């Protein structure tokens, strides 16, 4: 989360710098696309992303229009795949590996999305 805030602050600083040098107003600047915001939350540069970041990424999908349905489905799959890959699954061992696995970002994200009745849950047959 801290890395995400730093990335957002860097992006904002870059926008302010560009605005200052190009005499642009914020009103004429386009919004940051959902895909870029998702990358800020769960991309490779944010190595500390947790279930909250993945949930925010899923929530951003709801802002995408109906015309972007294919891209939305692609991003949904990408988000869930990144959640699965966030943890080192080979480290979940011991007397009860299921309890260990419940600490994984993927399971925490599923619990969070389910508890908030997220419409971006993915059918398990696709995983």
From TrEMBL:
Q: Where in the cell is it found?
A: Nucleus
Q: Name one GO cellular component term.
A: nucleus
**Protein keywords:** Nucleus, Transport
Q: Which InterPro entries match?
A: Nup133-like
Molecular function via GO: structural constituent of nuclear pore
- Keyword Transport on this protein? yes
- Give the main location: nucleus
| Protein name from the UniProt record | Uncharacterized protein
